[in-house]
Each structure stands twice: as structure tokens, then as C-alpha cells.
Amino acid sequence: MMEPHTARIVQERMLSLLASRLTCLELHFDGGPELAERMVELSGLARTVLLAAKNLQAIHIGFPSRNPLDLRLETIFHNIRWEGLRAFGIQAWRLDSQDIIKIVRRHKTTLRGLRLRDVQLKRGSIWKDVLSVMRAEIDQLEWVSLRRIDYSDHFDQLWANTMEVPDEPPFGASDSNEEADDGDDDDDDDFSSQNLSDQESIVGDQAEDSDEESTADTDHGPDADDIAISPDTPITLPFCTCSRSSDLTSADGLGDNGMSVTYQQRKMWEKWVAGRCPEHA
Are the CB atoms for 71 and 39 separated by under 8 Å? Predict the structure, then answer.
């Protein structure tokens, strides 16, 4: 009969073996009470699996939009650096700016795409600090998705009197209300129906964001090289070749007030970070 401790070791070894074969990993967790405590309990297992996943090219770990996780990124990611990581995504976290900056800097020479969806910055942090590092230090950044980023205090104020947080902001502030109708806006927090094999897009056209004008390239875009994790929305316009991409050189001109983020702001920020023209990109 196998002892429980021995069984756990065997399970971890099996998970490590499976993880070593992965090139793409996308995990979405349910919410519920004591979410942070439950994720802390999984921290050791996460370290075992992610250390073994040496071949990762794309990773996304997310939580329900209505219940962002208040936990440092390194509790899950453990300062791990993947040599071939080209796309990194997280969803629904409450973070300090340095949490994001540290993981970006670890992978600044390999990242092509970055998705920060429903990320709420905590008091004392400001988005322009994160954006300036992303723009200046990621060598080959091709796309960035900032869907529904905001500040934690503002997020809490919006939903203080709401029984349940829907996927879109209240009071007519949703992304879909800002843009022309582009079909269904399915943004649930579970991509389990997507095909994760053969590095096919796990978002792409089948899970479109309402951000039709996003600067983000898809895995079918220029030079994407079949990155397994794609932006929230495919771009439909050709790349702009005008010189306006260099008009705004400092993050101080982004209009970041440190309190809330509007739809128009984050769309402009996506373009600025990727070095695109704020008008034509």
C-alpha cells in the first residue's frame, strides 16, 4: 500500500513529466470564498509544474472578472524565467506595478505579446509606470491587450452596491457600447472549449473581444509565428506607416490620473505601448 506522501510525490512527478512537454498553458480558476488562501496552498504545486515546463512559449493564468485575485504574481510564478516565452497573459488580479514590471523584465528579450485583462492596480501604483517599461524595454513587442484594466479602488467603488460583477463595466461604460456592432461579445472566463493542441490560437477569432479597433495582432498577424496565445481581438486594418508613432515619447502624456482608466485611454495606451500611430494603427 502506498503512503500518502509517496502518492503525492508520484503525482508531482507525473505532472512534471506532462508539463515538460507543454509549449502552451492556459489555466482559468473559479472564484469563491478564500480564493487567495486556496491559491497559496497551490503555490508549491505551481512551482513544480512551471519549473518543469521549460518549453513554454505561451502562458495565461486567469480568474473570474468579478473576483480578482489579491496575490503577488510570484506566489504562482516563483521568479521562473522561460527562455522561449513569447506570449504572457493574466486575467483578474489585484497587483502592484512592480509585480508586472518584474515578470516583464525577466522576459523582455523574448516576449512578442502581452495580455493584461481585468488587472486592477493597487493603491500606490500607477499604470504609466508599467506601460513605459513595456514600451521601452520589451525588444520585440508586437501586440498588447489591456482589456478592462483599471485601479483597484475604482473597481471596488463601481461594484460596491452590486450583487454580482458582470463581465462588462456598469452604467453604460462597456467596451461594446463604445464601438460598432461586431457580433457576439462572448467574454466568459473559461476557455476550456478552445483547442489547446498544436499551438493553435486559444483565443483568436472564436473568442472575440468587442475591441474591434485594438492594435493587437492575432496569431495570424504579421510575424506572429504561430504564437499560441493571441490578443483578445483580431486587427482588421493594415499597419500604419506614417510617422506619428513617435509623437508621444513620454508616459507623462498618457493622461493617467492614477484613479481610473477609461475605454478611450486604454485603447490609446495599447497603441502607444506597441509603438503604433494613435490615430491610424
Answer: yes
Give me the count of residues in the chain: 281
How many Cβ atoms from other residues are within 10 Å of residue 258's Cβ? 16
Amino acid at residue number 143:
W
CB atoms closer than 10 angstroms to residue 18: 12
CA-CA distance, 144 to 117, in Å (whole number)? 10
pLDDT above 90 for 223: no
Locate 166 and state its grid cell.
458582470
CB-based burial label for 174 (10 Å; 0-12, 13-18, 19+): middle
Residue 254 carries which DSSP code? G
How many angstroms separate the CA atoms of 123 and 121, rounded?
7
pTM: predicted TM-score of the whole model, two decimal places: 0.73
Query: Which of 133-147, 169-183, 222-236 shows the highest mean pLDDT?
Result: 133-147
Work out the number of other CB atoms within 10 angstroms of the CB of residue 19: 18
Cα distances from 28 to residues 25, 168, 173, 254, in angstroms, run 10, 18, 25, 31
Average pLDDT of span 135-142:
95
Residue of 191, 244, 238, 185 lying closest to 215 (CA atoms):
238
**For the residues of 112-174, what is the DSSP string, one character each?**
-EEEEES-EEPTT--HHHHHHHHHHH-TT--EEE-TT-EEHHHHHHHTTT-SS--SS-STT--
